[in-house]
Task: inverse folding
């Protein structure tokens, strides 16, 4: 089992009734800086997704049809300046870097399981898509 370093809660979703018996998720305002990054992303015609993990981390994944910078996967802490791990394509080829090695194993699981709703983290973690 992976143990996350204790961080202050980043955000939570608010479930609101939509009147038709279903709930919809509204993004917490603390996610706004991450949403701004995703909204202006270039080369994101194939994928452009944000996830909140355990209400303390944000994972961003984008991919596109570009010759260079065709994909980027970033694990953030509480702010966009707090990059815990990054895997991206650039002119030198794919590059992976985890300045905070405490998150390297978690990041490896996430990037190996992008096709799963829980990003491969299982029931011990909360993974929520951040709408934008």
Result:
């Amino acid at each position: 089992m992976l143990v996350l370093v204790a961080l202050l809660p980043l955000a939570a979703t608010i479930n609101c009734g939509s009147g038709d018996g279903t709930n919809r998720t509204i993004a917490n305002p603390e996610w706004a800086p991450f949403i701004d990054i995703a909204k202006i992303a270039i080369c994101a015609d194939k994928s452009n997704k944000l996830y909140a993990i355990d209400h303390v981390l944000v994972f961003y994944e984008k991919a596109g049809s570009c010759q260079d910078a065709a994909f980027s996967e970033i694990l953030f802490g509480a702010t966009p300046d707090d990059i815990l791990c990054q895997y991206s394509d650039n002119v030198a080829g794919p590059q992976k870097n985890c300045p905070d090695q405490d998150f390297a194993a978690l990041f490896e699981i996430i990037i190996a399981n992008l096709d799963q709703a829980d990003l491969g983290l299982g029931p011990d973690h909360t993974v929520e898509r951040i709408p934008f």
Confidence is low (pLDDT under 50) at residues 1-26.
